[in-house]
Amino acid sequence: MNLDIDRALSALADNLVEHCQKKQITNPIVVGIHSGGVWVAERILSQLATQEALATLDITFYRDDFSRMGLHPKVKQTVLPPTEDRHVILIDDVLMSGRTIRAAMNEIFDFGRPSSISLAILYDLHQAELPIHADAVGEVINLSATQRIKLSGPSPLVVNVVESA
After folding, report:
1. d(CA 108, CA 84)
2. pLDDT given at position 65
3. Which among 21, 56, 69, 157 is placed 20 to 30 Å from 11, CA to CA?
């Protein structure tokens, strides 16, 4: 399967701009989830109508499988301004089960109660285990049970479909 990441990034940015216009969202806090979501957000931030610097979120301690990850997870820094009464655009590279997004929303609410959270996803796999859907999508992909999306970056930003064990 050949994926065109530039086409998906362009479609995501266009869909997100349209979503913000329709919902009248101005000057949102744009939040990328480490690591792939940050890389995607860096690529499309300039196309969004915001004065805010890119915020980043590490959801390691908010995951429901934290105890399965072992004692030495790789933790990155969360940089997020107060979210009280603000519109938040949450960006990630892949939407699969929805568990990463649930964890991210839990962390966002620790910084305040946002007016809204919009979800932007580069690749939606339509394999949700939770009732979470994206407001803006770059591309919908159907994979076999043994395939996964692997984003590598940040420069160059490359996407591959890999076989899982």
Report:
1. 10
2. 58
3. 56
Higher pLDDT, 7 or 61: 7
Average pLDDT over residues 17-34: 97
Reference 37, options 15, 14, 12; nearest CA is 12
Domains and CATH numbers, the chain: 5-163 (3.40.50.2020)
pLDDT value at position 145? 86
- Three-class DSSP category at 117: strand
Number of Cβ atoms within 10 Å of the Cβ of 76: 15
Query: Got the DSSP string for 118-156?
Result: EEEEEEE-S--SSS---SEEEEE----TTEEEEEE-SSS
Q: How far apart are CA 102 and CA 28, in angstroms?
A: 20
The HSE-up count of residue 143 (CA atoms within 13 Å, CB side) is 25
**Order of strands across the sheet that contains 136-140:** 55-57, 29-33, 87-95, 116-124, 136-140
Collapsing DSSP to helix, strand or coil, 95 comes out as: strand
Amino acid letter at 106? Answer: N
To the nearest whole number, what is the mean pLDDT of the chain? Answer: 91
